[in-house]
Structure formats: C-alpha cells, structure tokens
Amino acid sequence: MVEPERGPIMVVKQHAHTKCWVSVLSCLLLACLYVGSLYVWRSSLPRDHPSVIKHRCASVLLVSALSPVVVKAWMHWADVRVDASVWELMGVRLEGVVPAAVLPLLLTMVFYLGPLVHSAMDNTEGFTGELLSAVDVQSWRLCVGDVVWLRNQVVAPVTEELVFRGAMLPMLLPCTGPTAAVFMAPLFFGVAHFHHIVEQRRLRKDSMSVILLVSGMQFLYTTVFGAFTAFIFMKTGHVVGPVLCHSFCNSQGLPDISSALQHPQRSALLFSYLMGFLLFLVLLFPLTDPFFYGAIPICSLVAPAASTC
C-alpha cells in the first residue's frame, strides 16, 4: 500500500503557523511604537503638563498615521489578498457610517444610564441643566482650548482605536478567528497602559504596592473595555463607533457605585444602574446587527465557514 504524500499538508500548516507569528509580531511592533513614542521626548514634567501633552499627541498621531503602512506590510509578509483596501479593513469607510457612529454610542450611553441619572440628580437644574450644558457652545469652546480635554476626548480615542482596534484586529483575525481576536487584541491595549508604572514611580507619588494595584485595576478595565470596542469594530466594520464610545467613556470615567450607595436617593439610583446594565445586555446584539452597516470588509479575512461576523 502506498502511503499518501504529506508534504503539501505540512507546507500549509507551516505557512499558517508563520502567518500567526507575523500577525502577533506586527501587533507587538505597533504597541511598542505607540508606547515608545510617548518617551521620545525627555522631560521631568508631569504627564498633564501642556508641553508634555502636545509632544505626546504629536508622537501618537504620527504612529497612527504609520499604522496603515504596518498593516500593508503585514498583508505582504503574510501573503494576504482580499478585495478591500487597507483603510476599509481598518474600518475607515463611508458605507453605513451614520448608524455606525450613532448606535454603538447609544448602546454605551444606555450602559451609563446610572451615572447619567446620578449626574442629573446632583445638578441643581436636573435633567434640563444636564442637556443645556451638553449643548452649550461656550462650554465646548473652553473644552477645545484645553489640551487635557483634547488629549482625553479626541487624540487618545482616535489614535488608540485606530492602532489597537483598526490595525490589530485585521492582522489577528486570519490567525485567531473573530471571537479570539476580540479578546486577544485588548491584551495589547491593556499591557500598553503599564507604562504608567514608570511615570508614577518617577514622580514618587505612591508606594510601589499602590502603584502596582492601581495599574492592575487599570489593566483589567482597559482590557474589558478593549474587548467591548473590539466587538463593536467586528460587528460594524467601522472604527468611528469605537472612537466615539471611547471618548464618551473617558468623559464619564468608571461608574461610581460606592457614591450611589451613599446618595439620599439611593434606591432610585441603584435601580437606574441596574436598568442600564440590563438594557445594555438586551440591546447589545440588536444594535450591532450587521444589517445596519452593510458588507463588513474585515470579514473577508476569515474563511466563510469559520466567520461569525
């Protein structure tokens, strides 16, 4: 009996294995470039000093501009051929852009129902005051002139989502599949925030144990948040939704449940927190249904039988 030839199968497996290493190393390269660019400018000033913010914003904007080049190089090295441009794979496209901007943001706001109600209760003018402050032109002018606000609400969301979601997910997807990519890409995002340990240690504001605890908590919630925005990116094929969700979450911070427990209207607040979480779970898949967003270019990177896009 003649044994079947095994050469072609071994070549295919080895080729797939090589693609995975290229994908992971490309993502690692991007993460290192992003974090490393923050330290190109030597300074003893704190991270919130205007000059430090301006230099760092310039650095990460440059890395973000180079991210399509890294994706294009990955496509060449991994021999990836799809009928979509690099920008389309990275979620920069026009088809379905309006629902991609509105629906994920609405979903995120639903999750923050408790904190939003909490803020309105503490406002002397109630919900009306909150709405008026949200559309106040003078308030927006002050924000645009504040470099800290620009970093937190504009530059960080745009650059981090473009690099850690728009660039990394297409490179991981052919290797890991959609579900694993959603949970793997945020690990690069979470680990990238560990550079704050160096800054905190340099400023000697807290003990090392406190710094590590805070950094560990930050890694946890940035990874969880990263998984959420990666899911949004995969389901919509757009980067605009993750950017807006990121900006909104930065403006709100973590939900302050401990403060809600001490509030005079504790019962109503806790009910709004619970309703926000339940509504978020109910609306998660309906509001991210690909029906709203058209054909998703990133899904072309996955074999049809394995695609869950």
Short description:
With 309 residues, the chain is an all-alpha fold.
Give a structural overview.
- This protein is mainly α and 309 residues long.
- Helices cover 72% and strands 0% of the residues.
- It contains 14 helices and no strands.
- Helix 1 packs parallel to helix 9 (178-192).
- It starts with 6 loop residues before the first helix and ends in a 26-residue tail after the last helix.
Write out key terms for the chains shown.
14 helices; 309 residues; globular; disordered N terminus
Gross morphology: globular
Got a strand count? 0
Helix content: over 70%
- Mean pLDDT rating: 84
- How would a crystallographer describe the biggest sheet? none
Q: What is the rounded Rg?
A: 22 Å
Terminal-residue CA separation: 44 Å
How would you spell out the order of helices and strands? HHHHHHHHHHHHHH
Structural class of the secondary elements?
mainly alpha
Regions with little confidence, pLDDT below 50 for 5+ residues: 1-15
Total number of helices: 14
Which range does the strand content fall in? under 5%
